Structure formats: C-alpha cells, structure tokens
Amino acid sequence: MGTLEHEGKEKQLEALVRRIEEMPGCLRDYRIWLQEKGIDATNMGAMGSAGGDDAYVCETKQKRSKLEGRRD
Asked: Concatenated DSSP letters for 9-57?
C-alpha cells in the first residue's frame, strides 16, 4: 500500500484490508441487519455516534471547569 512508514504496520494494514474484502457484509449498518431480523431500530443511532457525543460532553465539561474554576 505504501501509506505507512513502519513496515510491520503496513503488513497488518494489508492483512486487514484483505480480510474486509473477503467479508463484504462485515461493515454494513447494523440497524438494517436488525430490521431484517424483525427488530425495530428506528430510534437507534449509528455505530460510533454515542462515542462522539461522549467526547463532546467531556470536552465541554473540561472547558467549563477551566473557565469557572473548581468549586468544592
């Protein structure tokens, strides 16, 4: 691939890409899979969306605590 400086990491990346190519359905939206199984996934968020929200909340709290100072 030629995208990484470390040869070992490059080989790991190539192996990962090969595995993903061998399993074409492995990266599909889990909500579609659930709906195919008869489970209502209407209000479920996409994978990773909750993690993004958590990072935002933590960053916001950190900024507020720096601005306001610690009140014990």
From this structure: HHHHHHHHHHHHHH-TTTTS-HHHHHHHTT---TTPPPTTHHHHHHHHH
**Whole-angstrom distance, CA of residue 8 vs CA of residue 46:** 32
Tell whether pTM > 0.70. Answer: no
Please give the Cα distance from 27 to 12 (Å, whole number).
Answer: 18
Show the CA angle centred on residue 51, arms to residues 31 and 6, nearest 5°: 100
> How many Å is the Cα radius of gyration of the chain?
20
Q: How far apart are CA 37 and CA 30, in angstroms?
A: 11
Q: Averaged in consecutive runs of 10 residues, what is the pLDDT profile of the chain (72 residues)? A: 78 91 85 92 74 64 70 52
